[in-house]
Design a protein that fits this description.
The chain is mainly beta and 398 residues long. It is built from 4 helices and 18 strands. A hairpin with a 3-residue loop joins strand 17 and strand 18. It starts with a helix and ends with a strand.
């Protein structure tokens, strides 16, 4: 199956080069390219939790150390006579797919990823060489769930589908008018967002080597007039309020007794963020946010049913207002065509005891219009405790 997938990727790339390679339509609003990456990496150990260690004999669980992934990508850049092309003349975005060999096919599987990505140069050395960054975000399929009993099992993934997050940076070197090669460093994370157990995830660091081929010529227009001028809009709307509503589901490990207990079922999470953001630079916004979140799995320690044991643990339902936490966070956002990457750090000043901590979050905003966006994010507590996903929608008030 994997060999067939690799061959299909190669055939698709060749067909793209043959069909679109001579496309020189100078009226196009975008210009496209295809690319192929190879990314060898080292996978860091993930066995840290006492519950995980008790599930299977680590001596019989084959470790994942070395990994390699092969990527096929399609990207496009907006033409220079479009608002996005004038405002972000060198940014590229697109979709990609990859096959990942993690060194433990029996225990983990050979997952296949499908993702969106975006990149841009941040320092130009000369006309042909520049330093660039690129992020990937999507889903990966084909994982073997943690068995917990047999050798070759794993302690790092508890679901067949996991999120895929990647960021890389390096050198991009154009070879002629059509081809470019890239080389740089690469960081990757796979996890299920705490929706299943276990979830230490797979963390990898390595290098990326790639080649891209342009499928057409960039359209350069001398027409300066346009009914929608991004710069004018940005100047007119310096301050913007983003309101984001999200929901998710999560697993919970109860640690109120002597022995940690993995609770049955999943618990819902609902949140609301109100974020005034100030436009500082063309591609950078900063501000703060008031963050409210209800988590049905919090404040259980005070509502433990007396007499119930870890074999049949029970709780009284806490009042809903006792499961709401409120915090204030600082936010920074990279604004690019279609996508924005928002990161923040804050502190919960109100809520259950286990939520009174610093929290860190990262959000990907996918804009469908000037005001409406889709939000996909993740939250940590104290830089280490996996908390919950943030899947929702948002609206920008100006």
């Amino acid at each position: 199956m994997i060999i067939r997938y690799i061959l299909s990727m190669a055939l698709f790339m060749v067909s793209c080069l043959n069909v679109f390679g001579e496309n020189t339509d100078t009226c196009s609003k975008i210009w496209s390219s295809v690319g192929l990456d190879v990314r060898p990496a080292y996978a860091f150990p993930s066995y840290k939790d006492d519950i995980l260690i008790s599930m299977v004999d680590i001596a019989n669980a084959k470790a994942t150390k070395l990994a390699t992934s092969f990527h096929l990508k399609y990207s496009f850049t907006f033409a220079t006579d479009t608002p996005q092309g004038r405002f972000y003349p060198c940014a590229w975005q697109g979709v990609g797919t990859s096959v990942n060999f993690l060194g433990n096919q029996k225990g983990i599987g050979t997952p296949i990823s499908v993702y969106a990505f975006q990149g841009a140069p941040f320092f130009r050395i000369n006309n042909r060489m520049s330093l660039y960054y690129e992020w990937n975000f999507g889903a990966s399929f084909g994982w073997h769930k943690c068995d917990g009993k047999v050798a070759y099992s794993n302690l790092i993934v508890g679901s067949k589908v996991n999120a895929y997050i990647n960021i890389g940076a390096g050198l991009r070197w154009k070879l002629g008018d059509r081809y470019a090669v890239t080389a740089g460093l690469d960081l990757t994370h796979f996890s299920n967002g705490n929706t299943s157990f276990p979830n230490p995830g797979v963390n990898m660091a390595g290098i990326r080597i790639g080649v891209t081929r342009d499928l057409g010529k960039e359209h350069v227009s001398t027409n300066k007039s346009n009914s929608f001028d991004v710069d004018t809009v940005r100047r007119r709307h310096k301050l913007q309020f983003d309101v984001t509503a999200y929901g998710a589901w999560r697993k919970r490990v109860y640690r109120g007794g002597e022995t940690p207990v993995l609770l049955n079922g999943h618990y819902p999470v609902v949140g609301l963020d109100i974020s005034p953001m100030w436009q500082i630079k063309k591609i950078f916004r900063a501000g703060c946010s008031v963050d409210l979140q209800w988590d049905q799995s919090t404040d259980l320690k005070r509502h433990h049913a007396y007499g119930s044991t870890s074999d049949d643990i029970r709780f009284y339902r806490p009042p809903i207002f006792r499961q709401i936490c409120a915090g204030i966070s600082g936010r920074a956002e990279l604004v690019m065509p279609i996508f924005s990457v928002n990161v923040g750090m804050g502190y919960n000043f109100m809520g259950p005891e286990e939520t009174r901590a610093t929290y860190q979050l990262a959000n990907l905003k996918v804009r469908f219009s000037e005001r409406f966006f889709l939000n996909i994010g993740y939250q940590l507590l104290n830089f280490q405790k996996q908390n919950n996903l943030m899947l929702g929608v948002g609206y920008s008030f100006r």
